[in-house]
Amino acid sequence: MNKFILKFLILFFILTNNIIAEENIMILKLKDGDIKIELFEDKAPNHVKRIKQLAQEGKYNGVVFHRVIDGFMAQTGDVKFGNSSNDDYNLSRAGMGGSDLPDLKEEFNDLPHLRGTLSMARSQDPNSANSQFFICFKAAPFLDRQYTVFGKVIEGMDIVDKIKRGDENNNGSVSEPDKIINFE
Fold first, then answer.
1. CB 175: neighbour CB atoms within 10 A?
2. pTM of the model
3. Which CATH number fits domain 25-183: 3.40.109.10, 2.40.100.10, 1.10.10.10, 3.40.50.20?
4. How far apart are the first and last CA of the chain?
5. How far is CA 136 from the centre of its chain?
6. Rounded to an integer, what distance in angstroms lies between the CA atom of residue 151 and that of residue 79?
7. Which helix (H) or strand (E) holds 54?
8. Three-state DSSP class for 53?
9. Long-range CB contacts (< 8 A, 24+ apart) of 50-54?
10. Where are the domains of the chain?
């Protein structure tokens, strides 16, 4: 009887663990393919909740990568001015907006900014992250514990590497930028 209960508990744990793991996997669809992302709900619960909420509401669909600096990162997520599908779309203002939701309190953690890291963009105020985020092209340790890391690319960095780069002389601003097709 005890062996049966033990086997049941092990099976239950494995199945539950897989379901929880799948809840924290999202797909970012771009013109060149899909990027599979693992979210770190245990390290940045409020930021992950925000990303999931905006994605489920379709707010990221059509949002451009407005700031892309070669050898550093690709920034996106301005659902107000950066969404090419909305009336408020304004490429010259992309990066200045967010969602209608309140800004988030920082959740700085011990996760390093490595190649493939997803982290929330913010202003000078540590508690100003809202909807914008960036993906690191390579390690950026100077950002550690100053920006909230909430995920990482687990498949598709080759797709991230294809995101159109911005003007080095204009803080990475991108003319005719790539955009998110879907985020689910």
1. 9
2. 0.88
3. 2.40.100.10
4. 43
5. 10
6. 19
7. helix 45-56
8. helix
9. 50/99, 50/101, 50/104, 50/130, 50/131, 51/26, 51/133, 51/150, 51/151, 52/26, 53/101, 54/79, 54/99, 54/101, 54/131
10. 25-183
Locate the DSSP E strands across 25-161: 25-30, 33-39, 67-69, 73-76, 117-120, 133-136, 149-155
State the Cα–Cα distance between residues 157 and 70, nearest whole angstrom.
14
- Mark 3-14 as b/e (b = at least 16 C-beta within 10 Å): eeeeeeeeeeee
Digitized pLDDT (tens) for each residue of the chain, 184 residues in all: 566 555 554 545 444 444 445 689 999 999 999 999 999 999 999 999 999 999 999 999 999 999 999 999 999 999 999 999 999 999 999 999 999 999 999 999 999 999 999 999 999 999 999 999 999 999 999 999 999 999 999 999 999 999 999 998 999 999 999 999 999 9
